[in-house]
Specification:
The protein is built from five helices and two strands. By secondary structure, the protein is mostly helical.
Length: 133
């Protein structure tokens, strides 16, 4: 690292860069899973994607398939026409589609303590934050 940058500031910058890299890796895993191709990530992690897979099914981006895989893993589904259109969108549009589906799903989970207003407040607050600060 650069010896002229104080170590705490340098570490914070490296942490922010690492967080961004990790976020992109997870998002790419989700998109790869949609098209039933999921290469192992660099850390050897097998992320549990069952929650996001349920959201993608509810959004009709994927549907039940005929493979031997579980319905909530990367093999037990087929991508839909809407799913192909989703993959062609920019990442910000993709994220908003997933967030909207999450909020719609949350409407059915009110008894589990899901508060749509608090989630929206958090998302809007997060929108003004900078990574690493």
């Amino acid at each position: 690292g650069d010896s002229t940058v104080p170590s705490a500031k340098r570490r914070k910058t490296e942490d922010a860069a690492g967080l961004g890299k990790f976020a992109w890796m997870v998002w790419e895993n989700i998109l790869n899973c949609m098209v039933r191709h999921r290469p192992p990530d660099a850390s050897g992690n097998k992320d549990d994607l069952s929650g996001i897979m349920k959201l993608l099914k509810n959004a009709e981006l994927i549907k039940e398939g005929s493979d031997n895989g579980s319905s909530n893993d990367c093999r037990g589904h087929q991508i839909t026409q809407e799913g192909f259109q989703f993959l062609l969108k920019d990442v910000y549009s993709q994220l908003w589609i997933v967030i909207k589906e999450f909020l719609k799903y949350g409407e059915t989970q009110k008894e589990a303590g899901f508060d749509k207003l608090k989630i929206l407040q958090f998302l809007f607050h997060l929108g003004y934050c900078k990574v690493g600060k």
